[in-house]
Structures are given as structure tokens and as C-alpha cells.
Amino acid sequence: MKTIKKVLKILGILLLLLVVGMYILFVTMTSPKSDEDVIESFKEAPVKPILEHKTYKNFSYRVLSIISDSNLPTLIFVHGTIGSCMDFSRYMMDKDLVKKYNMVSYDRIGYNYKDKNPVQESIAFERDLLDNLISETMSDSIILAGYSYGGPITLASKKKIANLVLLAPAVYSKVEPMPWMLNFYKWKLTRWLVPDIWKEASKEKMSHQKDLMNFESNWKVNPNNIISIHGDADWIVPYSNSEYLLNHFPKEQFQLITLKDAGHDLIWSQFSNIKQQLLNL
Questions:
Q1: Range 102-129 average pLDDT
Q2: Which residues contact 128 (CB under 8 A, 6 or more apart)?
Q3: Same domain for 82 and 198?
Q4: Contact 238, 177 (CB under 8 A)
Q5: Is 90 exposed, middle or buried (0-12, 13-18, 19+ CB in 10 A)?
Q6: Which of 65, 99, 138, 209 could form a disulfide with 50 if both were Cys (CB 3.0 to 4.6 A apart)?
């Protein structure tokens, strides 16, 4: 009996250590990287990155750029919830894409490294910040690529650009799921367990459905040619989001590219497919 209790005690301690270790790893992996770590990540890149801190309405945010030729078109990436400028680092280090585009990625407010500002929970604010960034970009040709929550931000912009690429865009309020894991943030007893960056993501996720209602009936006023790339196995941002857009835009303006069996991690898991679509532009 004593032996069994001792074994169970050891197993319990090991299990606790495993859970704590996984939690620390989870926090570390999902937290924004420092400026030094971002630059270090690009040490093997074909073009040296430029890391700047810009200001919009007294909010400071971080912008990561790859500028290989001032005459090239500029591809601007907008990350989702949760996310950072580093979500698109593989694209920005790709030797083929570097030959075709200058590339820009940025941390949205609330997702910067050690950001003291909360997320703004506003597509309108995010759109205006993006429009301001576009205005500061010295390029005659702009392509926007918005992933997940970044999809409605890019779609809300009224600026005339070369192309708009939506990557699993969360644009339709009626199919917006609320994951059970959000309860860890909702419940006061467990909120302390949620890392700060995920608290911001939770707030943004919980307000997204209502905020979408201010925009979704007017998506069709976007003047640009649009490509939506979406996995049909995406349960975080259902494929029906892109089907909704397909029914609201004329065929000559909107193209839906379906990635079979792909989930919401498509910007990583479907890198080759998405890269080819960007090259095709």
C-alpha cells in the first residue's frame, strides 16, 4: 500500500511539473519577440530586415520591413488574433518572394513586445492605422494580405490598391465561433492563469462578432480585386466566411481558392500554396 501511495505521489509530482513546463513553453512561444530576437531570426535572410517603431494617435507600434528594391510593389501583411509581425517571417525570408516584393509586417496595438496598451477592439481603428501605414509606404503598387482578424481590417480599407489577399478571413458575424477556452478569461477564478497577450486576444475575440455587424453589409463597396484563400477544414474561422464573400462580390472582382483539408493554421501549414498564389499576382 505504501509503495502504491509513493508511486502515485511521484506520478502526481511529475504530472504537475509537466503541466507547469507546458504552460511556461506556451507563454514563451506565443509572446511577442524582442527587437533583438526578431533581428536574430533574420540572420540567414537574403535581405537584412528593417525594424522601426512608428506612432499612430499616440500609440507606438512595431513595423518589420524587407526592402530589396524600391521599384518593387509592396506586400503588407496584417496578422490575426493572436499574432505578431513574425507570423509572416517565412514569407519575408523567402528568396523568391524577396525578388518580387518589398514586404512589410507590423504588430497591431496590444500585441507589441511588452505592449502596455490594450487591444482597441475596433475594426475601424485597425483600418485607419493600416491606411495611415499605407500612406507612409513609398510604393506605387500595394498588395494587402490579411490573415484571420486581419482579413476584415484589410477588407474595410477603401484605399485603391493593386490586389487584396484574404487568408482565412473572419468577416461574417453569424458564423463567428466562441471557443470554450475563452471561459478561462471570462471566469474570474481562472483569469489569472491566462497570459497577458492572450487576455488581449480574448477581449478582441469576444467583441469581434458585434463589431463585424458594423461592416459586413458593406463589404461589397471595397473597390479592389480580391482573392480569398481558405481551408475547408477550418473550425476556428469557418470556410463559410469566404463563401459569404463569394455571394456578395461579382465574379470578375472576387476569387475563392479552397485549400482542401486545410485548417486555420494555413499561413504556416500551406506556405507553398499561399506563396505560389502571391507569386502569381
A1: 94
A2: 56
A3: yes
A4: yes
A5: middle
A6: 65
Say if residue 6 is in the same domain as residue 45: no
- pLDDT at position 230 is 98
Q: Containing domain of residue 18, as a range?
A: 1-30
Q: Is the pLDDT of residue 3 over 60?
A: yes
Asked if residue 256 lies in contact with residue 230, where contact means CB atoms within 8 angstroms, the answer is: yes
Same domain? For 225 and 256 the reply is: yes
Nearest Cα neighbor of 92 from 109, 80, 111, 79 is 79
User: Do the bridges between strand 102-106 and strand 59-66 make them parallel or antiparallel, or are there none, so unpaired?
Assistant: antiparallel
Q: Tell me, yes or no, whether 24 and 101 share the same domain.
A: no
Q: What is the total count of domains within the chain?
A: 2
Same domain, 224 and 187: yes
Instruction: Indicate which CATH number applies to the domain containing 248.
Output: 3.40.50.1820
- pLDDT, residue 26, reads 47
Secondary structure (DSSP) of the chain: -HHHHHHHHHHHHHHHHHHHHHHHHHHHHHSPPPHHHHHHHTTTSSS--EEEEEEETTEEEEEEEE-S-TTS-EEEEE--SS--GGGGHHHHT-HHHHHH-EEEEEPPTT-STT--SPP---HHHHHHHHHHHHHHS--S-EEEEEETTHHHHHHH-----SEEEEES----GGG----GGGHHHHSHHHHTTS-HHHHHHHHHHHHHHHHHTTTGGGGGG--S-EEEEEETT-TTTTTHHHHHHHTTS-TTTEEEEEETT--TTHHHHTHHHHHHHHHH-
Same domain, 118 and 242: yes
The reported pTM is 0.90
Report the alpha-carbon distance of residue 168 to residue 177 in Å, rounded. Answer: 14
Q: Are residues 218 and 161 in the same domain?
A: yes
